[in-house]
Structure formats: C-alpha cells, structure tokens
Amino acid sequence: MLNKLNLDLQGKDKTIVDMMSPVTAFKQKLKLVSSQLHQQQLRNFRNMMSEQENQGKYCDQSDSARYIEQVQNLASYFDQRFQDIATIEPVATYMCFPFGKITNVEDIASRMDIYEVENELLKLKNNIQIKSRVTGGSFWKLLSEEKYPNIKKCAIYLTAFFGSTYLCESTFSHMKHIKYRSTLSDEHLDACLRQAVTAYSPNYTKLADYMQC
User: Fold this and answer.
1) Distance of CA 71 to the CA centre of its chain
2) Half-sphere exposure for 128 (CA within 13 Å, toward CB)
3) 31-45 burial, b if ≥16 CB within 10 A, otherwise e?
4) Could you tell me if 111 and 91 are in contact, meaning their C-beta atoms sit under 8 angstroms apart?
5) Could you say which of 39, 152, 179, 201 is the most buried, measured as most Cβ atoms within 10 Å of its Cβ?
6) Whole-model pTM?
7) Where are the beta strands (DSSP E) in the chain?
8) Which residues of the chain have pLDDT under 50?
C-alpha cells in the first residue's frame, strides 16, 4: 500500500490538489485495515491469511495486536506528517468546486488567511452567471481581477505550492547516471541535465533545413 501511494505521488505537472486525494484515501485505508484487524478479518493481508489457513488456525486477538499497533502508529505518523495538507484541504475543496451545497464561508476565509475575502466569497457564491459556466479548474480564469482579487490570488497560491520533491529527486537521479562526472564542467552538466529532464522535442527536420546549403 505504501509503494502504491508512493507511485501515485510521483510524476510531473502535479499540483498539491492532485496529491491530497491519494494521501487522504491512504489514511482512510489505514483506518479500515485497523478495524478489520480488530475483527480478525484478513482480506487485506493475503499472505497472513494463506499462512494461517495452511497451518489450520485463525487469527486471534494476540496475533493481530502487534499488527494493529503498527497500523495505528503509521496512521498517527501520517496525521502528523501531513497536518499542513489537512489545514488547506477545505480551501482546496472549495477551489475545485466553490458552489457546493454546504460551504462555511467564515471557515474558508479564515483558512485562506487573506484580508477581507469574505465579501468576495459571498459575492461569488451567489453569482448565477458564473455558476452556470463552471467546467473545472479553468473556471478561475473567468473571474474578474477587479471584483475577485483575493480569491484569484488564493487560487494562484494553491497552484504554485510544491506538492513533493519528485522533480528535484528525479533530476538528481539523472545527474548520478551521467557518465564522466569527474571531467564534466558546470556548463556541460547543465546542458546534460536539461536534455535529460525536458519534455521539449526539437523539430530536427526544420533545424537540418536551416543548416543545409
């Protein structure tokens, strides 16, 4: 489960909003697993269930106690490690769909920590014209800078958050695999890294046409 979560959090062009859902889902899985272990249910522990069936016994409370403790410790660690995400999650939920049936304007405004944003939230919540044009994340581009300056600023902040260190770590991995590291200059290393991590694909045919007689 941890390996799958790690893979879900990797990749380019992922904002912190894209990473909240896998983390929250994983925390819910830990609660489910803990509850199942309390009830001696091993559906999520195939190897343990197979071993006990082969030995002709079933999981009792003493066997599952240490696993329950490990799962609960992991859940506590996730609550502590991702407490910042828990703080901004209501704001991210609002930003993804600001016209939900239940929206606590005061709570959202306090979490945004932007001065005088309550009036903008109420104005937007009751704007019928904009509500009819909601189609996704690009919705925030429809808002006027003059009427909704603080909400647009919050949307930009949320998009600019670094969700993980994946890009830094992948670049470092590319650097480790570049040959002749001891003889590389800074200029050559920079060029090699740019070529390794960029998604840009040159038009080689057009470039060749410029260089031919």
Assistant:
1) 22
2) 0
3) eebbebbeeeebeeb
4) yes
5) 152
6) 0.66
7) none
8) none
